[in-house]
Every structure is written in C-alpha cells, then in structure tokens.
Amino acid sequence: MIPHFIICTVYSIDNDYKKTFKEIFLPKMREYGVRSAILTMLYLGRMNLQTKEEVKQEYRDAHEAEFKKDRGALIWRSLNEDLEYFYISLRNPESKPKAEVSYSFLTQKLTEEELRLHDERNQDYLNTFSSYNQLWMEGYENSNQLIIEAAERFNNDIEQMKTSNDPESKFSHSFSGRWTFALRVTLESMQKEMRKRAANEDLLHMELKKQCVNWYNQRLHTYKFVKKE
Q1: CA-CA distance, 39 to 25, in Å (whole number)?
Q2: Adjacent-strand bridge partners of 221
Q3: Containing domain of residue 201, as a range?
Q4: Do 135 and 198 share a structural domain?
Q5: Distance in angstroms (rounded) separating the CA atoms of residues 192 and 171
Q6: Is residue 194 located within the same domain as residue 168?
Q7: Number of domains, the chain
Q8: What Å distances lie between residue 163 and 174, 182, 208, CA to CA?
Q9: Both 200 and 125 in a single domain?
C-alpha cells in the first residue's frame, strides 16, 4: 500500500510551496524506510462577488473545457466535480491517483447575513475576499494605492450586479487548486544521507559495507553502515 498524504493549505500553491513540503516529507520517508508516497495539496480561497449570469457562464466554460481540453494539461472544473473525481480515484483499489494539477471553482449564493454585511460594506466581511482584502496590503510601500484599487474592484462588481437580470441574487466566487504528485526516495538521496551522517556523527566503530538491494524491478548496489568486526 502506498501512503497518501493530503494537506489543506491557506495559501495558494506554487512550485516553492511544493518544494517546501518535499523537504519536509522526504527525510522522514528515508528515516522510516518508505520508498514512495503520494502527496496532495488542496487550497481554497474566496476571490470576489459574481452575478447569476457570471455563475452560469462559469459552469458552461468548465463543461466545454472538460471536453475540448483547451487549457492544455491543466484541468478546470467545479470544485464538487473535482473532489468527487478525486474521491472515486481514492476508493478504487485498481486506480492509482495520478500526478496532476487541477484548478476548480466554487460559487455560493450569499446568505441573508452576508447580504446585510455586503450592503453595510463591512470591511471584516470584505476581507474574506482576496480581491477586496485590505489586511494583506498593509505594510507595502504602495499600500494606500492597493487599498484604493481594492475598493474600486468592489464598486465595479457592485455596478456589474446592477445590470443583472436578477440583481438581488449575489454569489461568492472561490478559486481552488489541487496538486497531486509522487514522492520518491531515490537511491542517490539515500547515499547522500549516508554521507551527511558520516560528516556529522562519530562513526569510528562503524564501516561502510557494500550490499545488493532490490529497487523495484532492478538489482542495484548501495552501501550501509555496519559495526566493525
């Protein structure tokens, strides 16, 4: 059985984030003798407000992209569809989760309480949307300009909603990312760890001994520390 680690993050996922988690997991995998594993990182964050028409168009675009594959190697679908696909792949013992990057979206109709906060322009509520959030802008050299731009984005979205056929229906639009990829402890990384041990530990009573190991379908040579006879 291959271990599968699933992490939910509060930050958007990029290659630096992926590298950080590799640096966390791989040493522990070497320590416990785990040769391979799967890591999935999930991210979900509110972006902005949308009209009913924009929500419908989002679903139409996702449906067309699923068949046309016009986004290249990237996958674009609703969050519900993506998590259902991911769940089925985990439940199927014959289906191994494949390495992929999936971007998805989630739309939710605002509740009565949210509509009230929206109408009051409650900044604590608006800060839950990345497009209107002013907290993260503090400390930047051009923070005043960034705050002005965030307010303008909110005003523009409000004006857009007034043109809707159903202006009372307002939706939050969230962006989600899922990265699934393999973690593998290579023979080279094991030997690198041994060299590090040799440089940092007292190995006067130990010696390196050559050994032959089964590495998947191959027979390879490596070394291990054993007590001197």
Answers
A1: 9
A2: 212
A3: 186-227
A4: no
A5: 52
A6: no
A7: 2
A8: 22, 47, 75
A9: no
